[in-house]
Each structure stands twice: as structure tokens, then as C-alpha cells.
Amino acid sequence: MDELHAWLARLPIQHIGVVGDFAVDGYWDLRLEAGVPSLETGKRTQPIAQQRYAGGGAANVAMNLMALGVGRVSAFGVVGADPLGRELLRLLEGAGINQAGMVCQEQDWNTVTYIKPCQDGEEMARWDFGDFNQLAAATAERLLMALEACWPTLDALIINAQSPASIHTAPVQNQLATWFTQSDAPLVIADVRDPAQRYGDCHLKINEQEALRLCDASPATATVPADEQVRTAAMALQAAQQRPVFVTRGARGMLVADQGGVHAIPAIDLVGRSVDVTGAGDAALAGITAALVAGATTLQAARVGTCTAAIALQKLGETGQATPQELVALWSAVVGPSTGE
Q: Has residue 209 got a pLDDT over 80?
């Protein structure tokens, strides 16, 4: 427990940047029974009783860092000139996140948004905005200039790449890759889904399906890859990155590959509890990164990540974040007084 308190005490002096696909998660509460035929089309309307929005993707990662107590979090991403872009900036401002690196592109860019209609508590087919975005060269230049201005002050940089039309174009990737090799580079950790968006010379935090995809391997089954497959992929990625690799496995916990080998970190037991998987990976990424910059070892950071993910999982219908108080309570209950791996 003393170690956890010491890490949390160091977070207010840390500065962590998040560069990636900033998104909005929208929740629409449908009341289809109240629909009436439209006078214009004759088709039945789909009334929405309530709507609410939360930060998704890179925005949720940044909000998780703030919730954990990181002193300064800077956002580097792109929004469109649309209402959802304004809502995303409002959410970031409300969380206290530095928006100097958020760039608005007025043409060929819709703010990445995931609209989740819900009927009687069940999430329906999702509506996605932003899959056809095209990053302009001028936008990329403005984004990189903002990041370069902040670079000397960063203790860590998180890379988020999840949109099919990501900000991680070749010019952005090439410039970031150059900066990563500098002697004064901060700790860098990437969460990527597409092999084309992979970065070298940095830590990785990915799920097991993404690990296999990055290794150009196919899972043994559609949903649950074999343990040996995932271990092999983790080892291969660590050898290529020459940095620790964190592979999340849902209820099966996490694998951590470092110079000492591959280590299994058990998940927090949530059997019998209602969970919402939305944002759990973001919470794990934030927990891992915050712990690393505060002085935790690789395995200690992985344990923090399993705890922050477990807390987020139990916050239903939202992209929930873990607070220091929640983390301390869970750590005390399931991890114990010492984590001196």
C-alpha cells in the first residue's frame, strides 16, 4: 500500500501527452413505443428521450489520466467543424485537459463519434462518424508543431490509434518516429490496432487480438486465442520493440513481456457482477502509464492497469474512469500490502 500511495503522490507533478484519435461516445435513449408516422415520409419516428455524451478513444485515455490525479494532461488530435467537435472540446475543457494541441479541420473531417442507441437498456447497432476522414497536410503540420512545442516538458506520451481514418498518416508517423529516438524522449507507450499504424522504439499496450494481428497471426478461434499463441506474439513484439509489451486479455488478465520473459498478471475477479467493457482498455492504458511515470516497475504498473480497468468495467453505461480513492480501495482488497516484483 505504501508503494501505491507514493506513486499517487508523484502524479500531480507529471505531464503526460495523448496524441491520437479523439472521439465522442454518444448515448441515445430510444423510446420507440412513442413513435408516430412522419407527416413528410409516412415512416415511423424514433423518439429519443435522453442524450448524453462522453469522451471516447484518446479523449477517454486523457480523462482517465486526469481522474487518477496526473497534474497536466495535454491533448493532440483533430476535430471537425461540427457540433460534435464542439462537444468534444467542451468535454476536454470540463476535465481540465490542455487543448492547445487540438486542431480543427473544416473540410474532409467529421469529429470521430460513436453513437450508441439504447432501447430498454440494450445497446442497438452503433452509428459511426469519421470513418472516411482525410487528414490534410496543413492539419498534420499544425498538429506536429503543437506537439513539438510541448515535447521538452512531457514525462510520457501516449499514442492512441483506433479510427479507420486515423490521424496517424505517414508524415505524422515518420516525424514521431524520429522524435522517439532522441536521447531526451519521454516514456512513450502506444495502443494501436492496425499493423500499418504501429510504432517502434516504444512500449505497447494492446489486447490479445491486436497482438496477433500485429504479428500477422490468426487466432485459433474467433473470440479466444490460445494461451500459447498470445505468449508467442507477446515475446515477438517485445523482441521487435525492445520495450515492454502489455497484452490485455479481458477476464483472463494481462500478459507482460519484458527482458525477463513473459509474466501473467491475473484479472480482478468480477464474476457475478454487472460489467460494461466500454473504455476498459483506455483505463488500463492510463493506469499503466501513470504508474510507470510515477516510478512503478513494469509488473507493478500492469497490476495498477488491471485495477483501473476493473473499476471502469463496473461503471455501467459510460466510459468510466478510476479515481485514486477507488484505486486505493481495490488495491487494498485484492492486491495486498506489497507488490515488490
A: yes
